[in-house]
Structures are given as C-alpha cells and as structure tokens.
Design goal:
single chain; alpha/beta; Quinone Oxidoreductase, Chain A, domain 1; Rossmann fold; 2 domains; six-stranded parallel sheet; 25% helix; globular; NAD(P)-bd_dom_sf; ADH-like_C; oxidoreductase activity
Amino acid sequence: MEYPKTSKALRFSSIGGPLAVVEKEVPLLLAHELLVKVHAASINPCDIQLWRSGLVGVVAGDKGMGRHYSGTVVAVGSNVKGWKAGDEAFGLIFHPFGQGTFSEYINVNPTSDLITKKPGCFTHEQAASIPLVALTACSCLDWLPPPSASQRKVIVRGATGGTGTWVVQPAKVAYDCHVTAICSGKNADFVKSLGADEVIDYTRQDITSTLLSTRAATQPYDLLVDCVGGTDLTPPISPITKPQLLHPKWAYVTIVGDKTDVNTPGGPLTYLTNPRQIYRYLKGYLFGPRYACIALFKSSHLDQVVSLAERGEVKAVVQEVVEGAFDEREG
C-alpha cells in the first residue's frame, strides 16, 4: 500500500480539556520503526488519570489518548528484523507527551515499545484490551516465592477488574497456586470460571476476619495482590495492632498504592504522595513481609501471555466495544 500522508487521532491540549479528533501528518518512517494501522485501541484508568493530571502539562502542545492497541503492520523500517508488512501485532506504547493509540496509524519502535505478534485466538478487540493489565499482573506474580512441597497461596483483591482477572488466570494455570479472589458476590461464578478456588464477597463478608480464619486453619498466604488501593489489607506497622495475613518471607504488592481517589495516578508515583509507603517498603525489605507498589513491564511477559492464550489456558474478557470512533456523523 502507499504510505499514508495523514492520520486521524483523538488528542487533547490542556489538563482534563476537551478531546478532539484531529488530522495529523504521519511522520516519515525511521529505519528502526514499524508503521501500524490500528484496528482496535482500549481505554484504561491510567489514560484518564494522565489526561486529568498536571504531569501532562509539563510539556506544551497536544497529546494523544490511549496506550494499548492491536493492528496490522503496513510499513517496516530498513533496520527492523523479524517483521513484515501484513503481520498482525498488538502491544503498548507509553508516550504521554506524544502519540496515542486512538489513532489510525502509529509509529512503533520494536526495540523500546512493547509489541508482539497477535495470535489468531484473539480478536483485535481482545488483543487491544490486554497489554497493560496482563503485563502488570505478570509483574505482580514475579513476587511469588519459589515452588515448594506445599501449594503456594495467593489473594487477589479486585479480582474481576482488568488486572485482577489476569492475576487469577496465570496464578492458577501457570503457577499452580491456590487462589482466593475478593470481589462482589454477583461476580463469584465469573471469577471461579477464571480459576479462583475460593471467593470472598466483600459486600457480605468482613475481608480481614475471613482471611484470618482461613489462615488459622492452614498455612499463611504467600502473596497478596491489591488491585483496589487503600490500606485495608496492607502489612501492619506492628503485628500487635493488626494481625499478619502473610508469611513473613513473602509479599504484598499493590498496583494502586495507598490512594483511594480514582482520578489521580497510582502506581509508584504514590511513594511520593504517601511517604508511609516508603517506610512500609523498607520495613518489609528488612523484616518481611515484603511490600511494593509496582508498574514494571517486561517484554517477555507479553510473549508468556500469548503462549498461554494459544494453549487455551487464559482468555481475554471485553465488556464493551465502541465502533466507528473516527466516523464523521451528524448529531
């Protein structure tokens, strides 16, 4: 195909300002880049938080919306190996001051941007929903202890959210963990279908007392993954004031931090806004259980997700698809 001259994109130019579909010139393809025609892009809480955050105001000019995509490679830079025009791909680009994936075309550097070939078992919509949540989930599971004679035990708080569903599935099928999911009762059957062994309904049960009663009857938990935020289940400053859920050698990881405001950025940035998290990290490092607020991504994790999907061991769940975002319509 002829190299495109322009691309429609969803962009904004002020903090929390109006989103507009604009036509931008497609940059010339550099030797180390791929040009990808986007078929589907997904929205994530971090996109909304960045849009409303003062962080994006550091650099003037308009910025793109969206970080995740699935599409087809239409042009390949002269120095790029392993890719050809026509390959279907999905991935994550994190250019908060530049291009976004709500665009007809994006330029992708396969050595610095997370990208892999899309398996046939995923639709473009499913593939576009995966990168950030699945990569975050895999990073959380990196905190599991090494396998031992006893089955490892994982708690997933917010188990039916985007990241939570991707913690539950690999924890069960790839790591053979006993998974306790925390969610509302109406989602119990759904999370069990993903692999959860036990479900705690936070609308009817006290989470801490229920976990402690189970812990008393068996071994301590090895990993708690918190996809909700706040401090309800964080490791105690003193075990005298708050009983310990976790084995002292293992870990509590959160993808949110102590914050509870859904409109502000989470992840490691919360170490700056909640210094208590720094103390908790240091205390856990020295005495256990370990504590971390994470947002680390490894390209190998995306390949791991593809392998699990191709074997039919995990599935992508899409709640809603909005089509024709760039169509010009009246009214």
